[in-house]
Model the fold of this input.
Amino acid sequence: MAFTAEKEALVVDSWNAIKADAAELGLKFFLRIFEITPSASGLFPFLRDTSVPLEKNPKLKRHAMSVFAMTCEAAVQLRKLGRVILKETTIKHFGATHAKAGITGEHFELMRYALLETIREAVPYMWSPKMRNAWAESYDQLVEAIKKEMRPVA
Ligand code: HEM
Done:
């Protein structure tokens, strides 16, 4: 089914409404992930053996920001091009990093749930089943594109 301008707007408008608070949201997002699956924190090399508290870790915020912003970009691409194209410069490094870190389909599922919950809680006054579906579809297509780049590293 086509990714319509309406779906794009549902994602982009809600993202624009909350992106100024992205750092705080990013933290909530990861706390949600680690609450459901505590072992997931062990996947992030920068969280192991560090005395920096979670909420002050710049790399965690950066990762959360990438997920939010890339899902939003995916919505724009889906409407314009009908598919998600990852930037050439990030592709290799990015795909290899996830494969090397041992990220599986279950981790992407977990992140999907946490992402939708975080956005829902951030914009309760805008939230609707249509908005949920637009974010979910954008995320799913983005993850498909990432998974294609996640061939095992030689
Ligand atoms: C690294 C984005 C899903 C764990 C990265 C990087 C980006 C990114 C941009 C930095 C790549 C680099 O420069 O090496 C995304 C996006 C995702 C996603 C857009 C989903 C749409 C996940 C999931 C997990 C995960 C589900 C695990 C729960 C990691 C880890 C690293 C990483 C462990 C390496 C961090 C490091 O070594 O410093 N991700 N990611 N990612 N990601 Fe993701």
In short: The chain has a mean pLDDT of 89. Residues 58-81 form the longest helix (24 residues).
